[in-house]
């Protein structure tokens, strides 16, 4: 389905091998942990722009403004293009291309994923319905590629920010505690930035808990087992599809009372507890699997939104 919808050029959807390694290596040069420091000014600028818009119309959560902020960060970081309008063509393409991903990557939805030969038969043949979807979305995805826009990261950050606001509205005591830490460390004359991260353990814990409580992709990007495997006495046959992100982040043995939003689970003696599993490693891919995580999971945009929360009605 990735080939039919036009996503086969994106290394996030390429099977492991030399082609994947070469593309990942190129991407890693610009989005590794050491490279992201250069992107903080862009993040700060767009968060400030968001807060100015929020002050102009306080009281309501403006979802479009959140979307604009995150899209502007991603496009500027990646391609140096400034976006200032929610109706920008880049944002419109992003929404449509993410729809293509959501529709085409539903596990078990299309026989084409199991019988690739069906891509050679007419779309009206039973079992070849994916070809119709491909004709609908491929021109859009190709325009995304040609215009050079990375839709997935924007959608992931948008999901995490809206989950964050939902958590603050549902658990106001958490918001008050985070705001108190911000007031004590930052004061009232400026907003937090990346240099304050180590001095804001509770705020950082709020970010961690947001990704754990409502992972941006609950099922993860489906992966198939490359060889027969065995884990804790369970046989996993080659070709099995693994969809475990939500279950792992809500495992009561790892995270007691997992349905509750509780940033304190990550705190010990007033600092982050290194003994608690970092949810980033699950939510955004294991080991070296999820390139761009250092940008996507940076806490600075979210700490900026902590300052915004008192302006909304909760």
Automatic annotation (TrEMBL):
Gene3D superfamilies found in the cross-reference section: Cytochrome P450 (1.10.630.10)
Listed GO MF terms: heme binding; iron ion binding; monooxygenase activity; oxidoreductase activity, acting on paired donors, with incorporation or reduction of molecular oxygen
Pathway assigned to this chain's UniProt record: Secondary metabolite biosynthesis
Keywords: Heme, Iron, Membrane, Metal-binding, Monooxygenase, Oxidoreductase, Transmembrane, Transmembrane helix
Pfam families xrefs: p450
Localisation: Membrane
Bilayer topology: Single-pass membrane protein
InterPro entries: Cyt_P450, Cyt_P450_E_grp-I, Cyt_P450_sf, Cytochrome_P450_fung
Co-factor(s): heme
Keyword Repeat: no
Domain of life: Eukaryota
Keyword Heme appears in the UniProt entry: yes
A GO CC term attached to the entry: membrane
Family named by the database record: Belongs to the cytochrome P450 family.
UniProt protein name: Cytochrome P450
Organism: Hermanssonia centrifuga
């Amino acid at each position: 389905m990735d080939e039919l919808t036009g996503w086969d050029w994106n290394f996030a959807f390429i099977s492991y091998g030399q082609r994947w390694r070469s593309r990942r290596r190129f991407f890693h040069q610009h989005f590794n942990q050491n490279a992201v420091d250069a992107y903080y000014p862009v993040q700060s600028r767009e968060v400030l722009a968001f807060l100015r818009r929020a002050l102009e119309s306080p009281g309501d959560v403006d979802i479009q403004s959140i979307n604009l902020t995150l899209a502007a960060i991603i496009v500027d970081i990646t391609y140096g293009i400034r976006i200032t309008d929610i109706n920008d063509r880049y944002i419109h393409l992003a929404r449509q291309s993410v729809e293509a991903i959501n529709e085409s990557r539903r596990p078990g939805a299309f026989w084409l994923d199991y019988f690739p030969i069906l891509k050679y038969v007419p779309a009206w043949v039973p079992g070849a319905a994916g070809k119709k979807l491909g004709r609908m979305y491929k021109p859009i995805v190709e325009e995304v590629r040609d215009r050079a826009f990375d839709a997935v990261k924007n959608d992931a950050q948008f999901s995490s920010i809206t989950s964050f606001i939902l958590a603050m509205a549902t658990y106001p005591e958490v918001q008050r505690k985070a705001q108190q830490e911000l007031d004590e460390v930052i004061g009232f004359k400026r907003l937090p930035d990346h240099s304050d991260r180590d001095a804001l353990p509770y705020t950082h814990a709020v970010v961690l808990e947001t990704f754990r409580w409502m992972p941006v992709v609950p099922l993860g990007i489906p992966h198939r087992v490359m060889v027969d495997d065995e884990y804790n006495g369970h046989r996993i046959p080659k070709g099995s599809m693994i969809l475990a992100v939500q279950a792992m982040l809500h495992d009561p043995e790892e995270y007691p009372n997992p349905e509750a939003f509780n940033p304190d689970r990550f705190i010990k003696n007033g600092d982050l507890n290194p003994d608690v599993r970092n949810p980033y490693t699950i939510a955004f891919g294991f080991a070296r699997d999820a390139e761009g995580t250092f940008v996507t999971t940076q806490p600075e945009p979210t700490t900026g939104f902590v300052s915004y929360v008192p302006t909304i009605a909760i």
